[in-house]
Amino acid sequence: MKMTKSGNIEVKTIPFTEESFKMFKKAMRNSCTPTALEVFDFDYAFKLTKKAKVSPYAFMLSLIYIERVRQQSPDYFRKVSPCDLFLVSLMAASKVLIDEGEDEEIKNDRWATIAQLKLRYINQLEREFLSAIDWNLFVHQKIFYETMVNIIVTIIRNECRKRCWNGLTYNEIMVLLEYDEKFKQVCLLVYQYMVKVMLVFSLTYSAIILSVLSTEQSLPN
To answer: pTM of the predicted model, to two decimals?
Structure first.
């Protein structure tokens, strides 16, 4: 993860699969049984996204769609299985991000093969999902960017905690200073403390110098 010269965040190497998986399970926790969530594990999510070559941006878009469905169609959200919702939201996000006819495009028959499901079932999942979201797949740039920043900051925090906040990279510091209010507040407190310490040292040093000069002037020639 790094910031580009233009101030944008490059997300190609960030472990979005794991963080998106956690956010997805958090969204589903109050809407499905514990057994259903147990079936939907990280291995399933990782294998599915690896085979389909899902981009980090598709992950972010799918999370936005899932939240939109949760708010607009609570009945559908409660009855759909976590595995199916994860799959169909990624399908929709990938299709929105990839133009029809491009090499990266994955059609429904390919999704069926990847998920080891029948094509008829995949088509049904897609129709039900689009109906639940009211065919509204447009996402404003601001919402998309906020979602991306939220995931990135969460990932950086987790990585920094693993290292006990030791050895922060320049890019990590720049991103946290830009987007993490708590980190900025801590840095501000540290800065204010350091300023006070430097002020005390400066005053002490000045007092010592003045004392030495005063002593030298009082000595006989």
So the answer is: 0.65
Domain boundaries, the chain: 2-143, 185-221
Q: DSSP readout, 63-110?
A: HHHHHHHHHH-HHHHHHS-HHHHHHHHHHHHHHHHS-TTSTT---HHH
pLDDT band at residue 101 using 50, 70 and 90 as cut-offs: very low
Query: What pairing do the DSSP bridges indicate for beta strands 9-10 and 2-3?
Result: antiparallel
The CATH number that domain 2-143 falls under is 1.10.472.10
Q: Do 50 and 42 meet the contact criterion of CB atoms below 8 Å apart?
A: no
Q: Which two tokens stand for residue 205?
A: 């040093």
CA–CA dist 106, 54 (Å, integer): 10
Q: Are 55 and 93 in contact (CB under 8 A)?
A: no
10 pLDDT above the threshold of 50: no
Query: Rounded to whole angstroms, how far apart are CA atoms 210 and 99?
Result: 75
The answer to whether 29 touches 37, Cβ cutoff 8 Å, is: yes
Residue 115 has pLDDT above 70, yes or no: yes
pLDDT, average across residues 29-33: 59
Q: Which two tokens mark 190?
A: 């540290």
- Which pLDDT value is given to residue 129? 94
